[in-house]
Amino acid sequence: MTPSECARHLLKEEVGIIPCDTLWGLVAISTPTTARRLNHIKERSEEKPFLCLMSNLKEALNYAVINPLHEPLIRSSWPGPITFIFSKKETVPNWMTGGKNTIAIRIPQDVFLQHVLAEVGRPIFSTSANISGQPFPKSLEEVHVEFRQQVDFVFPSTQQLNRPSTIIDLTRSEPQKIR
């Protein structure tokens, strides 16, 4: 699957399983419809927010309130496997954040994902490809068959991924590591 093929699936509001730069991810373009579908597939509450993959800091500034004191940390961490939690801008709809006043954003380092994000031109929801509360799958083989049957496309790969992103809360003056 090429980045363009993946982007075409996402732009049709399809849900897929792809290797992200941290774990195997369940992904979809950020819309109210895909948010509901992702929650249904993951068997989780609509109040639990998704991580938003974005292409660059400029895009993140459209969704997040970023403290200028945190910019050196952000610039030294992105692109990469660091998810930052920010206060969301007032214009960000609740369906993007599970009704929370915060938004979780990551700019991936993976070249494939960077190309997909550039072609899609908007945030992509990403969450681990497992039922909520279950262990993270490290390979496509570990993603349950029933789970794979609920999505529209699966990226064929033998890639092994085994570490979720580090999560750092930047809603306060001092960064706080969550995971």
The poorly predicted ranges are none
What is the level 1 CATH name?
Answer: Alpha Beta
User: Which term fits the overall shape?
Assistant: globular
Beta-strand proportion = 15-25%
Structural class: alpha/beta
Order of helices and strands: HEEHEHEHEEHEHEEE
Annotated CATH topology: DHBP synthase
Fraction of residues in H or I helices = 25-40%
Termini separation comes to 31 Å
Mean pLDDT: 90
Radius of gyration: 15 Å
What CATH architecture do you see?
A: Alpha-Beta Complex
Task: Count up the helices.
Answer: 6
Largest sheet: 10 strands, mixed
How many domains make up the coordinates? 1
| Overall strand count | 10
Could you name the CATH homologous superfamily?
DHBP synthase
Describe the fold and architecture.
The protein has helices at 3-11, 32-42, 57-60, 71-77, 111-120, 145-148, and strands spanning 16-19, 24-29, 51-53, 64-65, 82-88, 102-106, 124-128, 153-154, 166-169, 176-177. The chain is α/β, with parallel strands linked by helices and 179 residues long. It has one domain: DHBP synthase. Strands 1, 2, 3, 4, 5, 6, 7, 8, 9 and 10 form a 10-stranded mixed sheet that branches. The longest helix is centred in the first third of the chain and has 11 residues, at 32-42. The radius of gyration is 15 Å and the shape is globular. It starts with a helix and ends with a strand. The model has no long low-confidence stretch (mean pLDDT 90).
Brief rundown of the structure:
It contains six helices and ten strands, in the order H-E-E-H-E-H-E-H-E-E-H-E-H-E-E-E. The chain is α/β, with parallel strands linked by helices.
